[in-house]
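Suppose a colleague, Dr. K., hands you the sequence of a protein chain of 228 amino acids and asks what its three-dimensional shape might be. Before reaching for any lab equipment, you can write down a predicted structure in token form. Begin with the sequence itself:
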Amino acid sequence: MGIGGGVFLVPLFNLLMGLKMREAVGTSLFVIFFIAFTASYSYWRRKLVSWRIGLIMEGGSGPGAFLGSLASHYLPSSLVKIAFIALLTYVAVRMWRREEGGERIYYRKLNVPWLLAIGFAAGFLSGLLGIGGGVVKVPILTILVGLPMHSAVATSEFMIVITTLTGALTHGFLGDIVYINGLLIAPCVIIGSFLGSKLSVRLKRGTLRKVFSVVMGLIALRMGLSLL
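The predicted structure, expressed as tokens, is then:
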């Protein structure tokens, strides 16, 4: 789905492994780097990555990820979790309502400052929530930039490689990464990422969007229940 995997890893580390929310966020970004690198290579071989759009947006995502990581370290865990749930819920609804066949390539009309701005926003949320930024970047690339779904997924994974590296380095400096947990999970997610990227290109764009939406909604519900 081009989302990096943080929407699964943060709940895994926080709810099942008992890490503090900032540790779950930091460790998630550490693992997501390996996921994104593997998937990005697979998509690159299929020539699905829009390099120009990805590189421009990452000019804003890097600084955004750095500032978001700092904010995640100092904000209350409950506030970060509520922000995480709100983001997933919005994205789930927005992607579900996206009309089939509604994609239009019009990114050439978008200027560089605008792409940098939305890249910064995605990077900030990545560092803040430990999500890699894909839950923001895929909808941005399809809804605002106008890329077809498969190209949006591939470009998102390429961008996530850079974003998560910045966020993980910052969280590592702040002591928010539990490396033993990350290293135990990393081999499994690398294999899953490779297989997932192969499946993604075989699915219809509408089906991929619906799957994306349902997964986001279910995870938002599970995280919401954990606050009760």
